[in-house]
Amino acid sequence: MRHVISVKVENKAGVLARVAGLFSARGYNIDSLTVGETEKNDISIMTIVVKGDDRIIEQVKKQLNKLIDVIKVIDHSSFSSIQRELVLLKINASPAKRTEIHQLAQLFSAEVIDISSKTLTLSVDADPEMIDNLIELLRPYGIKELIRSGRVSMLKG
Amino acid sequence: MKISGADIIIESLVKEDIEYMFGYPGGVVIPIFHSLYKAPFKFILSRHEQGAIHAADGYARASGKTGVVIATSGPGATNLVTGIATASMDSVPLVIFTGQVPSNMIGNDAFQEADITGITRPITKHNYLVNDIKDLARIIKEAFHIAATGRPGPVLIDVPVDISKSEEKFSYPEKADIRSYKPVYEGHPGQIKKACKKIESSKKPIIYAGGGIIISNASKEIRTFVKKTGIPITTTLLGLGAFPEDDPLSLGMLGMHGTYYANHAVHESDLVIAIGARFDDRVTGDISKFIPEAKVIHIDIDPASVSKTVEVDVPIVGDCKNILKEMNKIVKAPSIDKWVKHVKEMKKEHPLEYSKKGNIIKPQYVVEKLYELTEGKAVICTEVGQNQMWAAQFYQYSEPRTFISSGGLGTRGFGLPASIGAQLARPDKRVIDIAGDGSIQMNIQELIVAVQHKLPIIIAILNNGFLGMVRQWQQLFFEKRYSHTSMEFSPDFIKLADAFGAEGIRIKKMDEVEPAIKKALSIKDKPIVLDFQVAKEENVYPMVPSGKSVKDTIKRELA
């Protein structure tokens, strides 16, 4: 099961290495990890997507809390949250297929950011599950390159 | 008035009221040593950085205070890694200063450069690289706070040499205020009540006490608890000394080489009261078969240890001493006469034993004699392996901080330097390092430190010509293929002792054991090496092989 864990940390050198090191040392499975600043310049938020059963996730949260630079750990999987991720997709697109792909992209509010004689590159920022859908829809055309940024998550309300 | 970074370090240590600093100099720490020269506290020079950190560790375990270490950059720092991991596994409070190359050369593969903060990240409770001299005093204050509070652990401070040389006004913070670090000390009163109810209604309870009781200085409270409830108690390796082992309710140590009766009592119990212990794999063996019938109360200061390996029914996060105090106010004794009788019978029927046949000295006999002749009042340090297990089994511990041993990491070479630190911490006690002929060689160079400081440490080498514990495993599970475990080529320990300026006595016969120990105890101003030539293929029993359960206990076949 995938869990989205939001970790509030001190914005200091080495914190990312510490968290990444914790995960690798204990063998937890990271799907994605993003980190960035917040409205307070001495605090950063890391959004980590981990795969594991309840027992493992419980341990992950406890071990994160033990780190001196970690201020708070919230498991977003148990609350209502808004999640967003950015993906850049380069798709095989002959001139004949371009319009089709573009129409599909529009349904997902994707932006065309590059065109060549053989390819079309889209940029999409959306809910990660929507992105999963779009990728599956575009697969038959042939995806040449795909990069996902990893998701950020914020609690509702 | 501005002073140098090096002076700031020394002044901060004076504010922390430290008594000893352990370490070894080198290029980038010369400015710090320059300030250290006139420091009011004592500096103990080791002969290898690993010796320095194990000595600080032994000092911390024996005294309850924080050990302080200094080493230079590069190889000096990396030589500390084993010692840091040792302290980390056993929750020992240490503050470690390492020198670092100048700030503008970091990351350049400079001379004697090592990314020690990167290397020690997983094995320190926390670590710091000082970037600005303005942060130095605050970092030191924080380091001491983090090392000694909550679940203690080693904290490393990496100091680039330009910081040691630059200048700043010194102001030592009153308090360390870290918003992201607030350990919980008071147990939840609701959970405490729940635990007491479970205790009162239990039929076959047992107390499983660990090193946390000693760290928390809770041995008085655990004694009161046992007296009030009448529940039998077993301790882990690191819990030895928390509760007097000569008490009828004491079941000695449990686990892989624990007593038969402790392991079986735990296996048969219906309520395990775990206090300051972490359900380590040496204790549980195969988790799926561990305590099939019992409910679990788990009292620990580290929330991550609770329900880590074993499902817990009543978790109570907090300091053992505080929680036991509260429990002692309200807990009532359960009616368990039948259970206690059964446990005491098991104790009588399955004592720890060894074969006393023949005139070869048995290592267990040496430990028994040491116990007898020190009246159980010595501080025992151990190396790792068979010597460690026999020291745990055949010496009875009654006071906390009298058994100093590397449990979690199992570091061979720990005993000799640790006994130096322990003797400095407890000048009023006799300190004995129980060692093997293999492990004593790993940090033998530290012997000169004991001579230099006139420390009358007794180094009891159980010399069987083998790396005993590994050989035992090779005998029981690897078709007796003694691959590279023979210590046939070892130095003459008596000549070695002499070369260092220590006393040396070789013991070859049973009737020489007692006089040798008595002679050693009469010497008060230098270390004594006792080379006991013991039976070569003696094994530690009982044994629950790793990953197995109590049912698979291997007992000694008395020949």
Largest interface: A-B, 20 and 18 residues
> How far do the termini of chain B sit from each other?
77 Å
Major sheet summary line of chain A: 5 strands, antiparallel
Strand order of the largest sheet of chain B: 3-2-4-5-7-6
Quaternary structure: heterodimer
Major sheet size, sense and barrel closure of chain B = 6 strands, parallel
**Based on DSSP secondary structure assignment, what is the total number of beta strands of chain A?**
9
Q: How many β-strands of chain B, per DSSP?
A: 20
Overall mean pLDDT score of chain B? 96
- Measured by DSSP, the beta-strand proportion of chain B falls in 15-25%
Gross morphology of chain A: elongated
Number of helical segments of chain A?
Answer: 4
Search tags:
heterodimer; A: 157 residues; alpha+beta; five-stranded antiparallel β-sheet; B: 559 residues; alpha/beta; six-stranded parallel β-sheet; 20 strands
